[in-house]
Amino acid sequence: MDNIIDFFNDNIVARILLDSYLALILVSFVVFFAFRFRKALNLLIIGLIALFFYFVADILNLTISKILYTPFMASYIVICAIILAPELRKLMEYHKKIDNRNDMIVSSTQATKEAIVDAVFHMSSEKVGALITIEQHNSLDQYAERAIQLNSDISTELLEQIFIKNSPLHDGGVIIRGNKIVCAGAYYVLTQDDSLDKTIGSRHRAGVGISEVTDSLTIIVSEETGIIHVANAGFMKVMDSKNELLEYLNLFLGRS
Fold this sequence. Notes:
There is one protein chain. The protein is an alpha+beta fold. It has 2 domains: 2-83; 110-253, YojJ-like (1 (3-Layer(aba) Sandwich). It has 10 helices and 7 strands. The chain has helices at residues 2-10, 12-35, 40-59, 63-83, 85-99, 110-125, 141-144, 156-163, 202-213, 242-253; strands at residues 130-134, 148-153, 173-177, 180-186, 217-221, 228-232, 235-239. α2 (12-35) runs parallel beside α4, α6 (110-125) runs parallel beside α8 (156-163) and α6 (110-125) packs antiparallel against α10. The chain is elongated.
């Protein structure tokens, strides 16, 4: 190591070339950082590489690189905090999810499940968008508190009226606990999952988002296509028939 340092101290041309290359690498990082890298692992890799080059520049006393890398490292930490805010939020929500776990599940009757299925497929045929979240272990009170409280018995007709086009509650979600509609007009944080189809809208992203931070199941009806999805544990699955959705609800909520 001492021989390398002595070489660069004695060789001005080599110092200038290395200094220029490290500065160029920094510029490249900034470009990729701004337009490509979003995931936590990628940001960590960039940070470690930049930190390595910073130490190289410091050891070899490369003036240009030190001038550029010092503010870059400070800015990098701030930018990471901003970009990774959704990831940090998910981590906090995950721990809150564990803390809020309730071992007592309010079960839904078979009549309730069938009413949900009938409403969902009728809205699908009419291309009425819908977002229906069914609570399991994790309490959804933090989302229900900011919505319109209903505490109503579930019926096909009521669900359809909530999501009818131009209704003030149309864009929000319904939260179901057992055999009751707890609230309507609930809003969730949208998923940041880049692997999802870029064409899906905010309703689907909200459904996946709530499934990432709670153990709930969300049924989503597309307003554009009428296609029905269920979201659970961060994944979406298309439901092709009433029987398929009913079996999925029986599997998720248990038979009664």
